[in-house]
Amino acid sequence: MQVTTTSFGIEEALEQLGIKEVNKGTSTGKNWFSEGEEFSSYSPVDGQVIAKVTTTSKEDYEKVMESATSAFKEWRMKPAPLRGEIVRQFGDELRRLKEPLGKLVSYEMGKSYQEGLGEVQEMIDICDFAVGLSRQLHGLTMHSERPGHRMYEQYHPLGVVGIISAFNFPVAVWAWNTALAWICGDVCVWKPSEKTPLCGIACQKIAAKIMADNNLPEGISCLINGDYKVGEMMTNDKRVPLISATGSIRMGKIVAQAVAGRLGKSLLELGGNNAIIVTPDADIKMTVIGAVFGAVGTAGQRCTSTRRLIIHESMYDKVKDAVVDAYKQLRIGNPLDENNHVGPVIDKDAVKNYQHALKKVVEEGGNIIVEGGVLEGEGFESGCYVKPAIAEAKNSFEIVQHETFAPVLYMMKYSGGVENALELQNGVVQGLSSAIMTNNLREAEHFLSQAGSDCGIANVNIGTSGAEIGGAFGGEKETGGGRESGSDAWKIYMRRQTNTINYTTELPLAQGIKFDL
Ligand code: UN1
Q: Catalytic positions (predicted)?
């Protein structure tokens, strides 16, 4: 099948979203400008250039920061529920544009259209969550040790929040950050991945319309574009108190050091090396669905993708056969065609990393049980379609310790109790997501206990990917320790202030200190 931009309504979607052939990549709202060079966004679906975007120059960045810092002064004075009302309107506009935006996500990033729609749904959901939260940004009150004194804490907006997002969730991760930051009274500057800049342009247009409809100033929602050098303008900038960055561990270490060097705050959501433990009490049918979706969904390019299956020896052959069988049913092809399960990986570099992982696992002594390979021929002209592969491997292999952003699944055996499986599961540097498949209460509770999974996310009878927005999302160890999205993740977007008020005519000192004049 020949894939063209006219099939699957891509052209209409681009038009509805206001994407032009060449797009200015810097924006403070309605105002778009750029002094930087042009770069192209290629679709991994068909290898075509979708459109061009201009990068943000140092001068452009300065204009953005002027606009953002001045907008912050106005925005922070709006009552939080009013800011919530703006986020509500933004969520409604996303509902209206869900299909074209989902299509653009699928076409520019390569995930299935269903997953593209799911990603926009995450944006809508976080908006709803943020609207409710805009009336609940509460601190605590506590009793003062001094008579006639009142003590409480309150949360104030931080300022400009810098958001650096990855290609794999080109719209949702921005929305998790921005919807919360906005209700908290912050303004946002977003640098999307240079692999998915059009998703950034489309979202910024939606946000800019809502801001303008409400006569709000330029600068509440800002967009910058380009490679890591543009990101560095923000990470090194003292005017940006919080950097929220999603990406590789390598990138996260660079960002963390730059931000810590100026004593800024960072919220890091980095790589995962997520495992599903399959115990003797696992339901095989559920295990297969969870493992296969986790490993091949988004072509293995979620930070929550399932990379390791740790199977009890008594179940090993049964689970292995069932998973291998399920892989035979997978249809690889154009992700906009809803008959396909697996689309392309993002680009040729990702294909190289995939090939490297398969080569390396064999070199280290692994055994390929589902053969990989790059697909060629009609419909696969982009060169980015790869076959999901499975290798039997040891946890100690260097390649298994490493996150390869591709559909490669490693299978390994454990014997004895669940604590042995946990040793393998926790025996990696990453700590994002984890799962156990079991109907045994003891195993499940041990897995969730303080001696269990060391990850930020630990699921029972669910795969490792597909977290809901209502929970705090993020992971431990080299995953970076940040939490975004639900629960009380909003607190990182605010500064906490402790207030003590004396309503007497005396001035007693704390700790009983006497200081008489
Ligand atoms: C990511 O891959 O960066 O839990 C985010 C999930 C999605 C988010 C993944 N809700 O799989």
A: 269
269 is known as an active-site residue: yes
Residue 488 located in a structural domain? yes
Is the CB of 467 inside a 6 Å radius of any atom of ligand 1? yes
State whether residue 267 is helix, strand or coil: strand
DSSP 60: H
Antiparallel, parallel or unpaired: β 274-278 and 433-437: parallel
- Residue 254, Cβ density class (10 Å: 0-12 exposed, 13-18 middle, ≥19 buried): middle
434 lines ligand 1 (CB under 6 A): no
* Contacts of residue 63, Cβ cutoff 8 Å, sequence gap at least 6: 26, 28, 33
Q: Same domain for 288 and 411?
A: yes
pLDDT score of 350 more than 70:
yes
- Joined tokens for residue 127: 């908006």
**Per residue, what are the HEC states of 325-364?**
HHHHCCCECCCCCCCCCECCCCCHHHHHHHHHHHHHHHHC
For 353-368, how does the pLDDT look when each residue is reduced to its tens digit (9 = 90+)?
Answer: 999 999 999 999 999 9
Which CATH number fits the domain that encloses residue 187? 3.40.605.10
Confidence tier at 1 by pLDDT (50, 70, 90): very low
pLDDT, the chain, mean:
97
Whether residue 266 sits in one domain with residue 199: yes
Look up tokens 């919220």; give the residue: 267
Q: Is 168 in the pocket of ligand 1 (CB under 6 A)?
A: yes
118 lines ligand 1 (CB under 6 A): no
The verdict on residue 513 lying in a domain is: no
Distance CA 171, CA 124 (A): 11
| pLDDT of amino acid 3 | 46
Q: Judge contact between 406 and 357, C-beta under 8 A.
A: yes
CA of 466 to the centre of ligand 1 (A): 6
Residues 6 and 141 in one domain: yes
Name the catalytic one among 93, 218, 269, 443: 269
Same-domain status, 339 and 461: yes
Atom of ligand 1 nearest to the CA of 467: 4
Which residue segment(s) compose the domain that 226 sits in? Answer: 2-270+480-496
